[in-house]
């Protein structure tokens, strides 16, 4: 699966650079939304077909909220470490970048009025978090564990990466993934705004 994902990304990059006409870029956002909706519809079908959604929610209970908060703590620990390694960024800027949790369309926009440099770093960080999540979820599921996969993409675990999590793990992990993504998505505007003061 990782090979198929990587090949698809590379083919998309090459097609975008060499072959696709300029007008396609005007409609690519709409095509992406439709494709994502179709993908998530089939994930929902697959989870619903198992008939265990209600049972998985009931089984998870409030414990399901432990995972997104653990992801937040882990991300901030990594951000503080990055602040030590990259003194030009500093602790506050590193925390502001980390608080995007992979949401590359919102966090950089919010951070633009705080600092264009931090906004650019945030964009690259969040794109790379989602991309590495897409590539590494199947590997982590196989070598480390199922529940650990939801931490990789951050907020994208509820949308773009949900089909990959569901395919690489089990239906009950997809429930954890979706809820984790929702909590992290809610946390992004709150934490970015608080840390950067925007």
Defining key terms:
single chain, 0% strand, 198 residues
Structural notes for this entry:
The protein has 198 residues and is mostly helical. 75% of the residues lie in helices and 0% in strands. The protein has 9 helices and no strands. α1 packs antiparallel against α7 and α4 runs antiparallel to α5. The longest helix is centred in the N-terminal third of the chain and has 29 residues. The model has no long low-confidence stretch (mean pLDDT 83).
How much helix is in the residues? over 70%
Given as residue ranges, the uncertain stretches (5+ residues, pLDDT < 50) are none
Rg estimate, integer Å: 18 Å
Number of strands: 0
Mean pLDDT value: 83
| Spatial gap, N to C terminus | 40 Å
Secondary structure: elements and pairs:
Elements: H1 2-18, H2 22-50, H3 53-60, H4 66-85, H5 90-98, H6 107-111, H7 116-143, H8 162-168, H9 171-196
Helix pairs in contact: 1-7, 3-9, 4-5, 4-9, 5-7, 5-9, 7-8, 8-9
């Amino acid at each position: 699966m990782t090979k198929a994902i990587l090949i698809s990304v590379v083919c998309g990059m090459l097609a975008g650079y060499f072959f696709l006409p300029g007008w396609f870029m005007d409609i690519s956002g709409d095509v992406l939304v439709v494709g994502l909706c179709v993908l998530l519809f089939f994930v929902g079908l697959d989870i619903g077909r198992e008939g265990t959604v209600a049972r998985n929610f009931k089984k998870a209970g409030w414990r399901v909220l432990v995972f997104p908060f653990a992801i937040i703590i882990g991300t901030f620990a990594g951000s503080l470490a990055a602040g030590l390694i990259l003194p030009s960024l500093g602790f506050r800027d590193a925390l502001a970048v980390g608080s995007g949790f992979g949401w590359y369309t919102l966090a950089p926009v919010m951070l633009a009025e705080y600092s264009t440099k931090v906004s650019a770093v945030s964009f690259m960080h969040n794109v790379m978090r989602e991309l590495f999540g897409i590539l590494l979820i199947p590997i982590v599921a196989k070598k480390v564990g199922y529940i650990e996969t939801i931490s990789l993409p951050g907020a994208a675990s509820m949308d773009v990466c949900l089909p990959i999590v569901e395919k690489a793990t089990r239906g009950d992990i997809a429930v954890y993934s979706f809820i984790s993504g929702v909590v992290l998505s809610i946390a992004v505007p709150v934490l970015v705004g608080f840390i950067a003061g925007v």
